[in-house]
Amino acid sequence: MEKLTSARCKVHIDAGELVSFKVGRHEYIHQKGNPGWRNSDTEMFPIIGPTSEADFMVETPNGMAVQDQHGLLRELAYELVSQTDTKVVYLKKYSSGTEIKNSKFPEKSSAAFLTWPYDFSFEKSYELKGTILEIAFTISGEEGMPYMLGYHPAFYLHNLAPVIDTGARKITLEEVLDVGSRALEVKDCTSITLCDKKNLTITTQGFGSFMLWTEVPNMVCIEPITFYPYAVTQQRLATGFQELGKDPKVCTVTLIPEE
What we know:
The chain is an all-beta fold. The chain has one helix at 173-179, and strands at 2-5, 9-14, 17-23, 26-27, 41-44, 57-60, 63-66, 79-83, 87-94, 100-101, 113-114, 120-129, 132-141, 146-147, 150-156, 163-165, 170-172, 184-186, 191-195, 200-205, 209-213, 219-225, 242-243, 249-257. This is Aldose 1-epimerase.
């Protein structure tokens, strides 16, 4: 497990997954084993959203891809590239057409293996700047490769009635719970504040929107996304793709805790 530290802040990362972000004694990250979700963060790539109703097939310019919900990146293991006291960098690589075993098969999926018709590399870094944590994602691959990107962190809730402030509206936990598994869309938004016992502001670059999800009152996922997948049918998920340019695509998420 990798650790980042500053005078007042401690960050713990397990195989690329953010498992603790603590300022003083206040923990901001959902803890594994608590009700709600078995993880504390993950990435959604190269697609976001379910694919079961489309027989797990997603159309791309290089042919059909076999993708389960939220893509295949989460099935790959991160390699630790570098580490200092305040920054750590991880990497995943994929070769076009490689069959990746689907961990949801057979209990939750009929797709035994997942594939993507492009090479890509996916870098994830954490950098601690005082009490501010910046998470950066760098996608490299063939020019024109279609992709969607979502970051899926889960935050620990200390109060029974937290509010999510988008600037334009204030969203209650009950509103998020009522939407259920589809997740609540927050469109055209790059900054959100989770108003809890200690507030946390989440700012983004390169995403554009958020979606909010939880099914329990002790945690909430505030997820930066490039595309909200429930706005279309599963057969039309490909309409949400962006394309890689000549240069790598960099997207960032910054966690700014209340001082």
